[in-house]
Write a structure and sequence with these properties.
4 strands; single chain; Aminopeptidase; alpha+beta; globular; 4-stranded mixed beta sheet
Length: about 100
């Protein structure tokens, strides 16, 4: 059994910011966590929010703040991610990532 998985800080190149790239990365991590949990078990996916804005960002995906200060958040394996859809707003970001990786 895996105790838990901690998601490291995400960085997005300046030219790709505000295009949905961070959302795609978070969703990809959530999906990978679900795969690992299905195979090995675990207690949750954890993130350290660097500030209040980051905390609010992760909360929109269903992450839950932990005491004492709420800067560490978890997505328990039994919780349905609330924003884990990859709708049409992410298509442009996917193309940007592919273009960026080719250059």
């Amino acid at each position: 059994m895996v105790g838990g998985i901690k998601l490291g800080r995400l960085a997005v190149a300046k030219e790709l910011q505000r295009k949905g790239v961070r959302k795609i990365l978070v969703i990809a991590a959530m999906r990978k966590f679900a795969d690992v949990f299905d195979q090995a078990g675990g207690i949750g996916l954890f993130v350290d929010a660097k500030d209040h804005a980051a905390k609010k960002y992760y909360e929109q995906f269903g992450f839950v703040p932990l005491p004492p200060d709420g800067r560490i958040l978890t997505l328990p394996p039994d919780r349905e991610p609330s924003s884990a859809r990859s709708g049409p707003e992410c298509n442009g970001a996917r193309k940007q990532i592919q273009r960026y990786l080719r250059s």
